[in-house]
Amino acid sequence: MIYLDSGATSFHKPPAVARAVAEALHTCANPGRGGYGAAVAAARRVFECREAAADLFDCQPEQVVLTTSCTHGLNIAIRSLVRPGGRVVVSGFEHNAVTRPLHALGADIQVAGRRLFDWEDTLTRFEDALRRGADAAVFTHVSNVFGYLLPVEEMAALCRRYGVRFVLDAAQSAGSIPVSLQALGAAFIAMPGHKGLLGPQGTGLLLCSESGKPLLQGGTGSDSVQQEMPDYLPDRLEPGTLNVPGYAGLAQGLRYLKKVGVERIGQRERRQRKRCVSGLKNLGMQVFSGPHQAGTVSFLPGMDCEEAAERLARRGIAVRAGLHCAPLAHSSAGTLETGTVRVSFGYDCNDRETEEFLRAASKLPPFTQ
Amino acid sequence: MHFYYITFRSVTYAQRGEKLLQGSGIRCTLLRTPRWMEQRGCGYCLRLWTGEVGPALQLLQKYQVPYRKVYIQTRDGQLEEMTP
Questions:
Q1: Which chain A residues are within 8 Å of B9, Cβ to Cβ?
Q2: Which of A26, A230, A260, B57 has the maximum number of C-beta atoms within 10 A of its C-beta?
Q3: In what order do the strands lie in the sheet with A320-322?
Q4: Residues A150 and A276 in one domain
Q5: 3-state DSSP helix/strand/coil percent for chain B, to nearest 5?
Q6: What is the reported pTM?
Q7: Residue A300 placed within a domain
Q8: Residue A63: domain span
Q9: What is the ipTM, given to two decimal places?
């Protein structure tokens, strides 16, 4: 199988990830709950994951809260910053992991900037919305549907200028584009562990500049007498037993990224994306591409996108079609009715696989109005 | 040389402290905090075998690793709190 669905999850992990998961399953008890060898071993695996993340994302280990997914982290972050009915500015390319928690809070959602690959539009609309006042801003680093790389440094600067705390959704960027908690000054940055960070599913990270509001309450192995959750990180946001095998694996994924280099991986993905865009255009597909694009591209053939993905799957190509849990992004791009076929490149992409994909795509009918 | 115990509210802080001190050549061991030392219940501590605890505490303060209390083991084996 040629796997081009890294936007959903990384499929071929570095071998050290699986080895670490198995080792932790056999040697680790509950972290932070005991002083015997297996409990301390578990605490060490967890701390190694925090340290590796802190090193990669420019923060302290205790600012790295371990979550079950990016969605989990986004829910914590959003509930920490947004009061029920509060006004929130988002980009036009958000995933349901952002919009559904906001909807559940009854937030007044201001969508700012809906033109794909247009930084000027994004920044102008975003500033206009901030100027009118907001409790918080939440925006994605890279659109999971179109690979649009938003101008997040400039958006962060605008948030600072208008005194609006913000959350960055780094679901599609962490591991292929450098992210710094300190440099951006975000209140929170949420990311999955199993996509660009190459860890197992069921893992995620929430980088925190502030202590946040717990989504769940429970045991933390600390301050056990008091009934309120601890007021310090990471304990405050991590009740219950942690997924030690998962974080042991994630630590290895993070180490791999450190060794190979996040920028290098991003360059590799973008090179394949460019090759793919060019090839798809030559085949007559409608391709969504632009100047600020990461390693993901969406296209429309001359047939239903789900059926097209099914045809590609029969030829051994794994891509994702439909709405990609991001109706807002599709609405912004005018593809809510049709959906798109998404090709998303991962850390191990290469020329041969892109060519194989294009050969299979050449069997699809070209786009017609 | 004495045994000192430095207590922390979170295992994460204790581990940061452990790495910092060991990286500076100060031998220490990560342990569960004895119940009587921790009024809030549950926590971790570092046991140090060293002549003076001052340099260790200075390092923790310099790198902003919050600790709670410091105990010294006296000649008769009893532990006494050093911080108010």
A1: 222-223, 230, 232, 235
A2: A230
A3: A286-288, A296-300, A340-344, A320-322
A4: no
A5: 30, 30, 40
A6: 0.96
A7: yes
A8: 15-260
A9: 0.87
